[in-house]
Amino acid sequence: MNQKTRVLIIGAGVAGLSAAYDLARADYDVTVWEAAPQAGGLAAGFKASHWGWPLEKFYHHLFQSDHDIIRLAEEIGIGNDVFFRRPITSVWKNGRSYPFDSPLRVLLFPHLNVLDKARMGAVIAYLRFSSQWQKFERVTAHEWLQRTMGRRAYETLWEPLLVGKFGEHYREVNLAWFWARIHKRSPALGYFRGGFQHFVDTLVRRVEGLGGKVYLSRPARRIRPLPEGGFHVQGEGGEWRGDVVIATISPTVFQRMVPELPSSYLEKVRNLRYMGAVVMTLALKHRMTEQDYWINLPKKEGFPFLAFVEHTNYMDREHYGGDYIVYLGDYLDPDHPYFQMSEQELLDTFLPVLPCFNPNFTPDWITGVWVHKATYAQPVVPVNYSRQIPDIVTPIRGLYYASMSQVYPWDRGTNYAVEIGRRVAEIVQSRKL
Ligand SMILES: Cc1cc2nc3c(=O)[nH]c(=O)nc-3n(C[C@H](O)[C@H](O)[C@H](O)COP(=O)(O)OP(=O)(O)OC[C@H]3O[C@@H](n4cnc5c(N)ncnc54)[C@H](O)[C@@H]3O)c2cc1C
Question: How confident is the model at residue 63 (pLDDT cuts 50, 70, 90)?
Fold first, then answer.
C-alpha cells in the first residue's frame, strides 16, 4: 500500500495555509499547527459583537499587482469577494495632511518647489519602470535617494517613511526594498468582503475539505530530526511524527527549535533582523478626518506613532455597526518599551496627539480600544541582502523554512506569503525524500 507523505506545517498564517492547500490538493497528508487560537497570523482579524465584518488586527489592503493572492482567492471560490477602491493616502507636513497619491496632487503639494518635484518625479519614474532590482540592492535607499532626488524632497517625503518603518535602522535599508514598493504599488487598494479573515477562514475550510488538519492553540516547541529520516515534533498539547516539516515562523523561534541545523545555516537565520509592530485600533462615535484613509506621519513632528489609518474612510462603517474605525500604528524594535506597555499606558501616549487630526476630538468619542502587538512584523533588508537570505530548502533533508524574511526583493505582504507558501509546496513536491 502506498503511504501518503506526512507533512507538518508550523504556522497557520497565509504562507502556511497556502502551502497546506497545495500539498493537500496534491494528496499529501497535511497537518498544520498554529500557536494562536485563530488562523491568519498577521492578517487575522477580530470582531466586536455588533460588527458585521471582522477587522484586521493590523491594517491591511491589497495592491492591484498582488496577483498571487487574487489568483488563490479565485481558486478557492471567493474571487468575487475581492474589490478595489481608491481611498486617499496622504503625507503630513507642518501640522496638516496633504493628499499625495496622484501626479496632480504631487504638483499641488506646497512644500517643494517645481524643480524638487521634477527631480523627484524623474527618480520615481525611473524606479517604477526599472525591472532589474539587483543593482539597487548594492546601495542604501537613504544615500541614493538623497543624492538623486535631492535632500529637500527626500527629507520631506521619503525619509519619514523609512524612519517610521525601520526606526534607527533606516539608514541601512537597501534601495531594492524602496524600488519594490514603487514598482509594485497601485493607488487603488483591494480588500475582501468580510475582511482578510474571510480569505483565511475559506482557505482553512478548503484545506480541511481536502483532508488536511488544522490545529489551533498548538504551538510547536521542538523539531527533532530522526536518525532514520523524518521528524518528531513536540508541541504544547500534541506531538507529530512524519516526513516533511515546513516552518513559516519567525527566525528567532525557528533557530531555537532546530539546534541540529548546521551552523552556517543557523548563522544566516540568526542574522535576519526585523521590526515588530504595535497597532492600536479605536472605535469612535465621530469621524476623525474628512477624507484621509492613510496618513504617513513624520516622527520629527512629535507623533508617537507612524501611521494614522482611518479605515472607515476606505470601508463603509455599516460593516462595523456604524462605528468609525481608526488605527494608530508603529513599527518598532522588538525590545521597544511599547511592547511592555499596557493598553492604558499606550492610550495615554497616543491620545494627546489626536486633536491634531480633528480639533474637536475628545476622549469620550472612544467606544472601543484594542491593542495588537507582533514582534516579527517587518524584515530589515540591508545592502546585498540577497546573499544573506537562508534558502527555503534547509540542509536537513525534509525540513523547509519559508518566512516573510525570504520574500525579498518584495516587501512582505499577504501576496508574497501566498507566493512563498505555494513555492515551498512546489519544492516539496519536486524533491524525492
Ligand atoms: C502592521 C502591519 C501591516 C500590514 N499591512 C499589510 C497590508 O496592508 N497588506 C498585506 O498584504 N500585508 C500586510 N502586512 C503583512 C502581512 O500580514 C504578512 O506579510 C503576512 O500575513 C505574513 O504571513 P506569514 O504566514 O508569512 O506569517 P505570519 O502571519 O506571521 O504567520 C506565522 C504564523 O505562525 C504562528 N506561529 C509562530 N510560532 C509558532 C509555533 N511555535 N508553533 C505554531 N505556530 C506558530 C503565528 O502565530 C502565525 O500565525 C502587514 C503586517 C503588519 C504587521
Answer: very high
**Separation of CA 156 and ligand 1 centre (Å):** 31
Q: Mean of the pLDDT values across residues 62-76?
A: 97
Residue 309 shares a structural domain with residue 187? yes
Nearest alpha carbon, ligand 1 atom 8: 60
Cβ < 6 A, ligand 1 pocket: 10-16, 33-36, 41-43, 58-62, 219-220, 248-249, 253, 277, 279, 329, 374, 377, 403-404, 412-415, 417
pLDDT value at position 104? 87
C-alpha 329/C-alpha 164 separation (Å) is: 10
C-alpha of residue 422 to centroid of ligand 1, in Å: 16
Number of structural domains in the chain: 2
How far apart, in whole angstroms, are the C-alpha atoms of residue 36 and residue 63? 27
Q: Mean of the per-residue pLDDT values for the chain?
A: 96
Clarify whether residues 227 and 109 are in a common domain: no
Task: For residue 405, tell me if it sits in a domain.
Answer: yes
Could you tell me if 250 and 304 lie in one domain? Answer: no
Interval between CA 276 and ligand 1 midpoint (Å)? 11
| Co-location of 170 and 319 in the same domain | yes
CA distance 214 to 201: 11
Mutate to test the pocket of ligand 1, among 64, 177, 201, 248 (most ligand atoms within 8 A of CB): 248
Could you give the CA distance from residue 421 to residue 392 in angstroms, rounded to a whole number?
10
User: pLDDT category, 2, cuts 50, 70, 90?
Assistant: low
Contact present, 269 and 403 (Cβ < 8 Å): no
Tens-place pLDDT, residues 247-297:
999 999 999 999 999 999 999 999 999 999 999 999 999 999 999 999 999
Q: Could you give the CA distance from residue 404 to residue 414 in angstroms, rounded to a whole number? A: 9
Q: Are 265 and 129 in the same domain?
A: no
- Cα 395 to ligand 1 centre (Å): 25
